[in-house]
Each structure stands twice: as structure tokens, then as C-alpha cells.
Amino acid sequence: MKVKVISRSTEEFTRERSQDLQKVFRNYDPNLRTLEKAVEYTRALNAAKLEKIFAKPFIGAMDGHIDAVSCMTKNPNHLKGIFSGSMDGDIRLWDLATRKTVNQFPGHQGAVRGLTTSTDGDRLLSCGTDCTVRLWKVPVLEMTDPNESNEDCSKPLAVYVWKHAFWAIDHQWDGNLFATAGTQVEIWDQNRSEPINTFEWGKDTTVSVRFNPGEPDLLATSASDRSIAIYDLRMSSPARKLIMQANEDCNCYTYDGRKLNEAKLVHKDHVSAVMDIDYSPTGREFVTGSYDRTVRIFPFNGGHSREIYHTKRMQRVFCVRFSCDASYVISGSDDTNLRLWKAKASEQMGVLLPREKRKLEYLDAVKERYQHLTDVKRIVRHRHLPKPVYKAAALRRTMIEAENKKDERRRAHSAPGSIPVQPFRKRRIIKELE
Amino acid sequence: MFLLFCGCVVTKEEGDETLALGATSKNCEGHDKVSAPVEFPRDGCVATKEEGVEGFPRDRCLWESSRREIRGFSFCCAAPCRSSSLSHPVAVARRQLIYRSPFLTLARQNGVSVLIPCVVVVARRLYSPPDSGKSRTINSNRMISATQQKIADELDVRARKYLRGDGANLETLRDKKLKGQLVNREKLYGQSAKAAAKAEKWLLPSDEGYLEPEGLEKTWMIKQESIVREVDISSFRKPFDMILPDLGPYKLEYTPSGRYMVMGGRKGHLAMIDMLNMNLIKEFQVRETVRDVVFLQNEQFFAVAQKKYPYIYNWRGTEIHCLKEHGAALKLQFLDKHFLLASVNKSAQLHYQDVSTGVIVANYRTGLGRTDVMQVNPYNAVIGLGHSAGKVTMWKPTSAKPLVTMLCHFGPVTDIAFHKGGHLMATTGMDHKIKLWDIRKFGLLHSYTAHAQMLDFSQKGMLALGNKSHVHIWRDSGNQDYKQYMSHEMVKGYQLAKVCFRPYEDVLGIGHSMGLSSIIVPGAGEPNFDSWVANPYETKKQRREKEVHALIDKLQPETIMLEPTKIGTLKPRRTKANPTKKEIQEEMESAIDAAKNITFKKKTKGRNKPSKRTKKKEEGVFKAKRPFLEQKTEERPFKRQKKEEVELPKALQRFSRKKAQ
């Protein structure tokens, strides 16, 4: 007879000294853990609820301006620095960590309309309705005392005076040039007092200009004649133009720059004009500020926003920016304040222990696995909306439905094929010019 | 030529580097450094460190490593290695395969930590005698691939358990993006299953128990005394007889980790024992009939079914609650993931109470007479009840009717037991039958003629049967055919009250009229526990933490269902949306037949006339017919519309119809 029975000695399965870690033994046999799916589902549900409970995105407001904040730009050299310009000509540099003004750059007579920094973070450029562009030296933030900087920033390094009021400014990502928008689009060199190149397409005012980060010579503008134009610095005339019917129709459109005949995606959710857009440094998301007093965050490939931020006191949002580490969002609004938000509403800030991190990863995975179940979906998707936004959204929905219905009826009562079904991605495009 | 080594990653000399084993360990005199398991390679040649040694030709360095191996461990395959100086590598390889399992135990006896993985390393071209031709190389090549195949197959078999069913059928998917995502997901599942299978193969600290007869011996002839003589000293203490003649028969129950036991004598004697060091934690008398005892979420609380009501006590013996709503409960069960205490009382009512909130979740009348046969299916938390008419019913707290009613015996059902895997149920009845059921399809698997009053399944699927003063243990002999494995006789006159396997141990606890006994049943328990599931060596802090986690993950009663893996899956699409004409016709005929066959009660004078009865019957038939007739009239115009739709645009249809008329 051969016999063996399970026999465990306590010493082998318990720790030796009280300072030691407890021993852990694993057996992954599925028969030992019953009702796995039910447990996972419960965890997913709880994780969704906890996420809602911990969703406190608002960190703080930064007040100091005495008029509406009109424009902002990040300081690429300092994670915690941000510049803002207001309607009364005030430009400020903020320290996000302490939420205080570090520097002021006085000089503009009217509203500051555009702000931009050079890619190396040394120079700040501002433009305004007083027909000037000013070049400033960016003060170096000291680690010891962030509130005091020893450099005097009250004088700009250069002032470029031109014929018309400016609406926007942007610096080239890789180079010394910058572009301004107003009645025309001008390309400037920092070392010259006059623009080196001027573009014009139509008579209407250009309201915004942005350089392409990947292609340093490309820039895009939008104008008040409902047009979007792409310019190439290497050519003497504008490259392409697109005219859309989408004048303040509350949507954002993503285009492939090579194919302007159709939007890649339409991001719908806002109920009033979208005032500003900024991409996250990761490129996977972008934040929008709107005239409906809300800030929304959209995935780059999603039609609807994943997040909406609002407070009672926040008025029309004129500018929004992602922070350089993609974990914060800053909004500037009509109520003269800048507001600091978390990019992920329920994210835990600060250092996470590896165990905490693993736990959060697990909960995210479980949530993702059960995201289609009604309860989980309902909790994850739910956002509290301000009453005006909620009502306006409902109204918009009925209007869009009515419009669609009308289209259908029209199609039913006309000859087959005479009114083709057009996707919304194409519907707003009037024409494309080369 | 190839050579297989089976070795452990510990070498003897200080500062020595183990070669060809994929891991280094220094200071190995005390055997305290243990490496991580080394991945078994797919392509046959491994040796991650093989290239790490410089200055040696490859043959030489592997030769060195093998010799060190031999010096470090004098295990079975080493001897032929050294003596024959590798002139018969094939033979060595074969020997090694044979002696693989002894090696593991040998390593353990040498005092090396049990966690040491057994690493199989295949070293390529260790030694090639000059006369070896090409054909031989090919031969040995084939051999390696065969052994490798064997191991891979074994891992695949092991991994199947961890895959938890088949993967999704991706062939039918048309969405390419989704298909790509799912393919990745399936690959990940496969990898994790394989990793778990490897961990099971190499990393588990304990082995299963066994009892092997030699010669003409039979396992059921082996007495407890002879087993006790053979086993080690810690197992020697496990079988015992506790004589408590006055307050018996005793019911008993273990915690899920098998550490604690609570016992309740019929005449009111309650005691809780720590089975690890045989400490009596608390003993007290309630001076009332005790019908059943059950542990709640941990060893801190237990519920006792007493004369009038069930009570909850803590480990100190303090009465915490009296559960009056349950009435005189006959049997208690606790669903630990749901925190539900279930009871069936004298008036055959089934109660579910949430012990974390105190809410009575459900209260159902079974309507099948008084019973004290109740068992939870651990696989899906459905409760099985056995009734005196031979029926077994299965219940969940969210339905007032039983989910399943099975006629299992011709006579009262005396006990039921569920296998841990969730597909096997054993029932026993007064008709001298023991039956095994497949509860996936509710079909009978085997029926045995034997008498038993109580049943219990062990973690490894052994079935204990208790009858009067005999205990039999049956074992699956393949194809779910249970054969006798062991038997044990109590002193004549002892009446058994409960048999209960102790989890994670090879022990069967027996409660009887003269106290308690426990016997050794080799191979009954799961040898390896998981610290996060049930830990026999749990500390106070771990227990508290686990309780909090259990409460956070508490399952709602709605999650109890016959097939628990259905949660989160899609409803199967109905293949047939509309029934065919023939089906409708048949349905109508059956409805008419049913209406015709209704027999009416005898009514009072005047209303029982034959004419009135026939009229009533006709009305019934018409009522049964009506929905089908209405359906027909509804369908007809719809069909005609569809035909015309093809011809003209919708907007013009109204004009055309006028024209046609």
C-alpha cells in the first residue's frame, strides 16, 4: 500500500518574522472561484459608480483679469506656466501650481486677440485690435520663488505696427516665422519690422490662423466668409479653400487635410457656437470651449464628447487649452477668470502606488468588458447638465429630427434619385476651391 | 544529437553560474535563492545563458554545465550521465523522462524550498561522437520534437480548463475592425490560460494525496489504522474520535478554508474548534433542540437552527440575532458571495435573508411538504430541495416557482449533494437508490442500488455516503461512473448525523450520535489553496480585509441563475420571427381542443342545464379561435400593400389605388 495525504507544515505557509511580508499562494483553478462573471459584473458596476462619485474635475479658478479672457497660450518650457490675454489689453503669465499671476506684460491699448509662444519657449508674441504685434521675452520661472521673477517684462522686445487690427497669431513650430490674421494673412519674421509675405483670398476678415505642427510650411485659417483656407509658405498664393455652410452650427468637423470634399467626422454635442479648440499633446483627444458656457472633451475619433465641464459661475468660454502633460484643461471665459480642470474627471492626482495602479487598471478593464450592459452604460454615460443646455439640446434634437423628416418626405414626393441621400459629413460643404 | 536535462536552477558552488538553465543563483549553500520559472522554448533549443559564456566552444560549456549539475544534485538521471560520460545521450534522455517526477520530490527532501520550479532544458548539440552520421541526428531530432510535442500537448490539455469554454466564432463576423480586436482578445486569453497552465505545472507547492493498493490489496479493504501508521506526523493527528455521549447526534460544518469547525448537538451543545491546532474556541449550551449549524461569511459568526427560530451567534457564543421570520427552521444554508442565509422551516417555507442588511429577500412556500433536505449548488448558488414525494426542486430568490422540478426517486429523497464543478448532482432516497444526475441537461447518468442517508462531495469529486454506522467513499472511475474507494465502520450502534469533507485537507468529518469522528481519505481535498479565495492560515488583518472586499463585491440576488456564465452575454437571436401557416393552424387546433376539453364545475340549480353548459363550451371554443382569426384579417391587407410598393413610389400609391378600383 502506498499512501500520501495532504500535509502542510505551518512554518512553510506562514511568515517567519513579523517584519516579513505575508506569504501568498495562488491556485488559478476556475473551480475554486465560482460565479466569476457575476462578481466581475458587480465590480464593473461598482467601479462605474465610484468613478461617478470621484468625478470632481474642477480644481480652481484664477482671477486677476479685469475683462473677459480672450486668448491663451501654453508655455512649452514650463509645465505649469500659461499666458492669457484679456479684452482690456492685459497679458498675464500664470503659475498653475499656485494659481497666481507671475508676470504682467502691459502695453496693448485695445483687446488682446492672439497670443503665441515660440517653440523653444523664449519668446511670446501678442497681437491686438490696436494694430500692433508685440514680441516679449518670456521670464524664467525660478524654482525657489515662483511669484517673483527678477526680470523686468514691462517693455516688449519689439513692436510691429501694421495697417489693420489683428485677430489671431500663431508661431511656426519649426522656425522663426509667425503668421497673423486680420484683413489679410501676413507672414512675419521676428527680425523684420514688416511682413515678409502676405496672402489674401477674398475680402473678408480672417479670424484664426494655425500652423501645422508636422509640416512647418503649412498653415490653415478660417475667415468670416464661412471659409477655411490652407496656405503653403513655399507658394505665392493660397493652396486650397473650403466653403462651409456651418456658420456657428455648434459642431466640430475633423478633416483630412488632403481631402476637403468630405469631413472625416462630425463631433456633435455643443448647443451653441464653438469658440476654441485645442488638441491634447497625445493627439487622442481635443477640448472645446463654447458659447453655451460649457467645456467639452471629445475623442479624436468619436462623434460625441466624453466629458462636459460647467460651473454656475462660468460664462461664455472664449479659449481653452490642454496642459502640456495632457492631464489638465484650462478654460478662459467671459467672467474674467481662468479655470483649471482635470482632463479625466475622476482621476486620482499625485503618485500612485503600483498596487493602486494595478487595481485601477483592473477596474478599467472590467468596466470596458461590461460597458454594453444597461446599468453600467447608464451610469458611465450620465452627466448632469445645466438646465439651459439640457433644454437647448432637446430643442436641437427636435429641430434636427424635423429637418430629417422633412428631407425624407421631400425625397418620397419627388422622382426617385433626384434628391440623393447625403451624409452629414458632406452636407455642410458648399464648395471646394483650388 | 540532443540531450534532455531535468534540473533545478540551484547550483552548489558559491558564485557559480548555472549554465544552460536560464537563471543564475548565487550563494546557494542554503538553497535560499530560487529563480523564476524559465520559459520552455517553442523551437526546441533553449538555453538563454548558452551564449552568455564566452571563450568556451558551445559543446564544452554545456558539458561543463551538465557536470556541475551532476555535482550539485545527485538525482536519478545524473548517474547514467556521469558513468557513461554521455556516450548514450538518448538513453539519458529517456531515463530523465522516466525519473522526472521523483526528481521534484527529491529536491524537496534536500531542503530546497518547495517553490523551486522544475526546469526542463533542451541543450542542442551537446556531444556528437565523430562516428555519428547524419541519419542519427535526424532520428534524435524527431525524438526531441516528439517529447516537446508531448509537453506542449499536456500544457494544452491543462490550459483548456483555464480557457473557460470555447472562444467566439469569428468566422461569421463581417466587421473587420471588430474581428481584429476580438482576434487580439482571444490571443490574450490563450496566453493567460497557457501561463496559468504553466504555473499549475511547475509552481504549485503541494501534491494531491493518493492511496495505491499493492498486489491483491483493494483500497476499500484498507483500514484507517494502517493508513495512520503510514502517514507523516502532522497527518497522524488528523483522524480522531471525540466521544460526547450525552448531547448527540452532532451536526458539523467547516469554514470554506477548512480551518474552523462548528458543531451542534441535537440537545443543544454548540462548540467551535480551530482544526489547525485543535483548539476549542468556545463551547456552550443552548438547552434547546439544535437542528442545524452553519457558518456565515467567516468564522466570526454562525447560525444555528434551534427549536423555534434560527439564531446567529458570534465566536464568543454571544447571541447576536434571533431570526423570528424564519420560524422553526430545519436546515440552514449560507450563500457566501450573496450574504444570504437560506432556511427551510417546518411548514416547508423557503426564506432568504440578507445577513449584511437584515432584509428578508424572499419567502416562498414550496408546497411540497416538510423537508430538511437542502443544499446549495456552489457553481451557481441555486438551492436544491429534496422532497418526500421523490422530487428535487431548485430555487432562486427571485422566482416564486422552482426553476426545476425533477422526479428523482420513488420515495422520499433523503439527501442531495452537488459537485463543485456544477454539472453533477447526487441524490439518495428511501428507495435504496443513489443516483447521479447531469444537471446541465437534467438527465440521469448512473443509478446505483445502495442505501445512504447522507451524501457529500469533496473538492476533488469524491462522494461520501453515510448510512447508519457505515461510511463509504466513492470515487469517479472514469466517465462519471462512481466506484467504491474506501469504507469505514463506526462502532456498532452509532447513528450518523452528518458527513462533511474538510476543504483543502484529506479529511472527512463525521457527526454521529456519540460525538464526532474524523477519518483520512487520501486524495479527497484540493492540495493547493489560493490565499485570495480561502486561506487556512489567514491572519486577523487578512480576515478583516477579506470581509470588506466581500461586502464590496456582494452579489445581488438577481445574479443567481441556473447558468451563471450567461451574465453579460447576448440574448440568442430568435431564428424564426413569424410562425408558418401550418404552425398557426396547429396552434389553433390545439387551443380549440383544450377549450373543448374543459370540464365545468357543477353549478347550482338552474345554471347547470345541459343547454347552458353546451353554450358555455361553444363560447369557450369561439374565444380560443378568435385571436387566430383576427390575426389572419390583420395580415391580409398588409401583404397586398407590400406587393404594390414595389411598383410605385410611396407618394404616388394613393392615386394608383383609386385608379385600380
From TrEMBL, chain A:
Q: Which Pfam families match?
A: Sof1, WD40
Q: Which UniProt keywords apply?
A: Nucleus, Repeat, Ribonucleoprotein, WD repeat
- WD repeat segments run 62-104, 105-138, 267-298, 310-351
The cross-references to Gene3D superfamilies, in alphabetical order and at most eight, read:
YVTN repeat-like/Quinoprotein amine dehydrogenase
Source organism: Zingiber officinale
What is the name attached to this protein's record? DDB1- and CUL4-associated factor 13
UniProt keyword Ribonucleoprotein, yes or no: yes
**Cellular compartments annotated:** Nucleus, Nucleolus
Similarity comment text for this entry? Belongs to the WD repeat DCAF13/WDSOF1 family.
GO CC term, one of those recorded:
small-subunit processome
* SUPFAM superfamilies named in the record: WD40 repeat-like
InterPro entries linked to this entry: Sof1 (IPR007287), WD40/YVTN_repeat-like_dom_sf (IPR015943), WD40_PAC1 (IPR020472), WD40_repeat_CS (IPR019775), WD40_repeat_dom_sf (IPR036322), WD40_rpt (IPR001680), WD_repeat_DCAF13/WDSOF1 (IPR051733)
Per the UniProt entry, what is one GO biological process?
maturation of SSU-rRNA from tricistronic rRNA transcript (SSU-rRNA, 5.8S rRNA, LSU-rRNA)
Q: Where is the Sof1-like protein domain?
A: 343-429
TrEMBL record, chain B:
Q: Where is the composition biased (Basic and acidic residues)?
A: 616-648
Q: Which keywords describe this protein according to UniProt?
A: Nucleus, Repeat, rRNA processing, WD repeat
Please report the stretch or stretches of sequence annotated as the BING4 C-terminal domain: 484-564
* One term under GO cellular component: 90S preribosome
- Where does the record place it? Nucleus, Nucleolus
Residue stretches of biased makeup (Basic residues) = 601-615
Q: Which GO terms describe its biological process?
A: maturation of SSU-rRNA from tricistronic rRNA transcript (SSU-rRNA, 5.8S rRNA, LSU-rRNA)
Region described as Disordered: 601-661
Instruction: Please indicate which superkingdom the organism of origin belongs to.
Output: Eukaryota
Q: Which Pfam families match?
A: BING4CT, WD40
Instruction: Spans of WD repeats, please give.
Output: 406-447
Say if the entry is tagged with keyword Transit peptide: no
- Name the UniProt record assigns to this protein: BING4 C-terminal domain-containing protein
